[in-house]
Structure formats: C-alpha cells, structure tokens
Amino acid sequence: MGIKSLLPGSLGFGTAPLGNMFREIPDDEARATVEAAWDQGIRYFDTAPFYGAGLSELRLGEVLAGRPRDAYVLSTKVGRVVLDELEDPAARDLGEKGGLFAHGRPHRMVDSYTADATLRSVEDSLERLRTDRLDIVWVHDVAQDFHGDRWLSQYETARTGAFRALQRLRDEGVIKGWGLGVNRVEPIELTLDLDEPRPDAFLLAGRYTLLDHERALQRLLPASTEQGVDMVVGGPYSSGILAGGRHFEYQQAPAGIIAKVERIKGLAAEHGVSVKAAALQFALAHPATAAVVPGATRPSRIAEDVAAVGERVPAAFWTALREQRLIAPDAPTP
C-alpha cells in the first residue's frame, strides 16, 4: 500500500477553485492557471465531479489532453453523480458548505456511494477529463460536514459499495490506488480500523494545517504511518486564510482564526519566512505526508507555491511557533 512511489513530487495542484469556487472564473484564466502549473513542473493533479458539477474536470481535461498521459498523475473522486438535468447551483444543500459552488455548472448532482454509482462516476470522469485512465480515486466527502447525522449510514453504503468497487479496480490494475477524500478525520479513522477493504492512501483536507492539526496527530496519523497508508494534504492554506484570503473552512474566517493568523504572520515576518512556506512545509514534515495539493485560480499563485516548498525556513521559526503554542508540541517540523 501507499502512493509515495507513484507521485512525481511533493507538490500537486488541487483544482477545486477551477469549479468556480466562491466566484465565477473566466475560462481563459482557468486554462492559464493549469498551464502555469504544468510549466512550473507540477505533474500531480487532483479534481472531482463535485467541483462545479464537472466544471473543474472539464477545464483540467482540456489542458491535459494535449500532454503525454504517462507524464502526469491524475486523481479524481466518486460519491456524487452529475446528471444531465438542471438545477439552481446556489440552491443546493451542501451541508456545512452551502453556496460553495454557487457559480458552477447548473447540472444536478446526486450523492451515491454504491458500487454502480462509483463505476458510473469513474466513466463520466474519464469522459470529462478526456483521458483513458485514472491513477487514484478518492471516495469524496463521506463525512459529517456534508451528511450530518446521516453520515454513518452513508459511510456504510460506501464501505460495501464504493470501497469494494475501487479495491477491485485497483486489484485488476484499472487504477493504481484508492482511498478517502474528506474534510474530517473520523471516516479515515474508521477505515484504518477495517480488516478489508484496505485503502492505499487518503486525502485529508483542512485537518493537517498550521491552524488545525491536533486531532489528526492524536490517532489518525500514527495509525496511518504504522499501516503504511499515505496522506495527501488538501487545503493546506485552510481555505485561503493562510494565503492572504478571507476564508476558513470555506466560510468567512471568524475573529479568533484571523487573530491566530496575524500571530503566525508576525513570527513569519520576524524570521523572514513567507506564510505560504510555513504552511506547505509544516504539512509536508509529517512522515505520513506524500504530497500537498494547494489550489489556485491565478497563474502567479502557482509560482508562489513552488517557491514556498523550496524556501529556507530557519529552525528558530518552528521553535517560536511551539513556544507561543501556535503548533502542537508533538507536531513534526522540517
């Protein structure tokens, strides 16, 4: 198990913003951003049908269709099927993430974690991405933030449906790995306790960042390290607040988070460190982490991410974060 040997580097590109997350993004801007990622040497791309009801996949596929398929690694997700019938994107019930893709395509999306829906979702994604194969497939958002009190019921459907379907595809060589792509630690903890099916990795968004990592450190990451199940860190900028934005957990950041970010910024300035470098290198420092996949909608942001991974961050900065209790005492640092 594990995907570290599969990934071409520690920095990938998360394409959720290309689904018109938070705002309507012009097609030429989206295309230029994907092309910038390619030009900067990024060769791992993560997407999902959920991102704008297929819009992110369509935009990503348009650019990657002109590149050699063996030159990059591609992951997408299952758990939602995009239909031909239309609906109001702004009126969708997205649990705690209401309005997240209000500017996405108006195609209706339905939640389904059955084996049949999983196979249909994979086929639909292949068509939108204009490719003949996927490398990694994540079971998307089977957690409390989208399903509330029904999440355990949805998880059980996924365990007997999507999990087994994806494990079969992996065992047959159709895909190279599978796991969960979620914003909560509990579904991953449950999955690590299963005798079967056994995932190769998971994509954990927003739960291993400078601003939120203590819960993941308690049980999830030690268990994943012990079992050889790798972690891809999504949302390393905590929905943008660590990259100069205003969002945390996909909503307007509360005062307490803004104050914490200001303290981190102050220490970063004192030690000559960019906050982006601190955020990405913190996430990469854990031995379970295989890659980070920040998102972007502007080409200039890609160059910033690449520079941040390679930036020199003095040990004194991490010491200062610990001393001021801005990171957990047992959190690994570079």
> Mind summarizing the main beta sheet?
8 strands, parallel
Computed CA radius of gyration, to the nearest angstrom = 19 Å
How would the global form be characterised? globular
Instruction: Count the beta strands.
Output: 12
Please provide a written account of the structure.
The chain is α/β, with parallel strands linked by helices. The protein has 12 helices and 12 strands. It has helices at residues 27-39, 55-64, 115-129, 144-147, 151-160, 162-171, 186-192, 214-227, 255-270, 275-285, 299-310, 315-323, and strands at residues 13-14, 44-46, 73-78, 80-86, 107-111, 136-140, 177-182, 201-205, 230-234, 247-248, 251-252, 289-293. Strands 1-2-3-6-7-8-9-12 form an 8-stranded parallel sheet. Strands 4-5 form a two-stranded antiparallel sheet. A two-stranded antiparallel ribbon has the order 10-11. Strand 10 (247-248) and strand 11 form a beta hairpin. The longest helix is centred in the C-terminal third of the chain and has 16 residues, at 255-270. The relative contact order is 0.14.
